[in-house]
Amino acid sequence: MPANRSFEVKALSRVEGEGGLFVQLDGDRVAHVVLNIYEPPRFFESFLRGREIHEVTDITARICGICPVAYQMSAAHALEKALGIGVTPEIRRLRRLLYCGEWIESHALHIHLLHAPDFLGYESGISMAADHRQVVERGLRLKRIGNDLLEILGGRAIHPINVTVGGFYRAPKPRELKALLPDLQWGLEASIEVLRLVSKFDFPDLGMDYECVCLQDPHEYPMNEGRVVATSGLNVPVEDYEQHFQERHLRQSTALHSVKLPEARSYLVGPLARINLCFDQLAPIAKREAESCGLDWPSQNNFHSIVARAVEMIDAFEEAIAIVRDYQAVLAPCRVPYEPTPGCGCHATEAPRGLLYHRYRIGDDGLIAEAKIVPPTSQNQGQIEQDLRAYVPQLLDLDDAGATLRCEQLIRNYDPCISCATHFLTLNVQR
Predict the structure, then answer these.
(1) CB 59 within 8 A of CB 153
(2) How confident is the model at residue 18 (pLDDT cuts 50, 70, 90)?
(3) Is 132 within 8 Å of 119 (Cβ atoms)?
(4) What span, in angstroms and rounded, lies between the C-alpha atoms of 103 and 351?
(5) Domains of the chain and any CATH numbers
């Protein structure tokens, strides 16, 4: 083994957020780890300035093709706070149903096509389908059901257009949602089978002292609302988020890097953080299956995130069924009216991959004067590097290709934004 060995990954291709990875070894010691996000700035915060309030949900939906609802919901809630308006309980429930659809389609995609091939020994979901056709077809059908919910409630599955500040432009007809009940029932049972499959995977050993961060509500599993909580005991309203978390610019990255204050510590957001901190808020079937799946919760191994996603998919189907069954009449009104007035508001929701924070200031002219968006990827970036520092020493006996594959798998633990390709690392080894 060379005294100095380095893994340089110049391009993480086909990901939402272009970047690379560099690992420098000094013998058996990991001397340096850098996750380099070098995608050119997209300037969403900048070109939101000067736009009308109703435009924000449509613009922010374009930030991500996998989780547009998360960006729409965080924006809508923040602007509603700035305007001093509140939505009705009925609108609130339909928003949770829309979010269930996003969780279902995102988790199904990630589990079946992006992450399961790593554990089952395949280079892609396509090659995995040759031997596990039913598993892949099940994943595609689960994703389709999530997309159907987005189409009915959001107007279309990609970048929905029916979401607005105050509610929805159009309310779904009961028959439209009721027609999905057979598929939702199938999806609930299928998700339980998915959990039973992924919980038996052979997981690498990675024990980390995670500072988990997420929203928490005493009565429901976090999606649209809650207080910001952390493993260390932090429990604050969303309005205090920026007092406890800070984005910093690093030379090697065009993505801002979030830390928890005052110790400037990296932290974990996403499915595992939510399960660890909000286990008791899971819906009954999801909680029962999580308790019997063979893993101990809370978990300090983010390779278990694929299991957490499966549990959350069960939870999303379970809640979606309950909401659809209760929806008996067309929601009227489906939107709370407002007048553009100056104000400030912030809010956070739980995207499939973790906490998503938005803050807006409306100027005296009724237009957006300032926007701040903190996505899950920037919050997880430091923790990914910490995981790599802890994990790479286990890989020293592997050849370069094997070590690269394991590093890919670790990064894929986090979210589809980083992991939307099966092979995204090109490795150069300097000896």
Answers:
(1) no
(2) low
(3) no
(4) 8
(5) 4-204+325-430 (1.10.645.10)
